[in-house]
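New to this. Please check this fold:
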Amino acid sequence: MFLEIDMGNSRIKWRFRDASNVLDKGFIETTAEFDLLAAFWLPYAGRVTVVWVASVVSDELEQKLAEWVKRIFAIDPVFARSGPNVGVVQNGYDSPDLLGVDRWLSILAAYGYTQTACIVLSLGTAATIDVIDKNGRHLGGFIAPGLSLMIRSLSSSARRISANSHEIVLTEELGRATSLAICGGCTSMLEGLVDNAVKQLRKVAGDEHFELVFTGGDAIQLMPYYPSAHLINDLVMDGLVYALQESIPGCNQ
């Protein structure tokens, strides 16, 4: 049995799976006490043989997680790292190891899923976009604040602008109240990221077909504006399979 973990800035997500099916999944807040993991993980003690981790958190938190994995499953987790390529997919960064591992794994999974040119949007704490051509070549990407960061930035820096991230619903309409104006502004900024990514891909690929792949906790809010996009909630953990399956004899996606 496999345990796959996505350690993000806001949440630690995990799933247990065998060679073909997801058996269980869950999450805790990244700021929560790690002993909460025991209640969710102990039922699988003695059954898990491989633990794969994608992490964008500090070395200290990674070490803390590794200790809990060792304590419960008596094995050491394998942390995925960004590299120059996996199969035909090529990392587009000048220094491949500096590409965030969550983005790299999302790129691998998105291309593995679409098998063609694609644009990957992850909308969580940050909004990231990565562009991949039909041959699996990563062309680069964008990083911008996610919805919550946009709203907190406005609320903390502009005295007369106040909004709660839980009240934000994306819209393209002009706002006639501050909260609605913020909604429209956030929507326009996110659409601008996607549309510019399309523009950049067109410069390289012309009118060739491409797919949109969305992931992240807030991505569902953008789906009404891009109805043909694929929403894949566990894209980072899917990427772990592409990145690390060859390291385990007999491991199948």
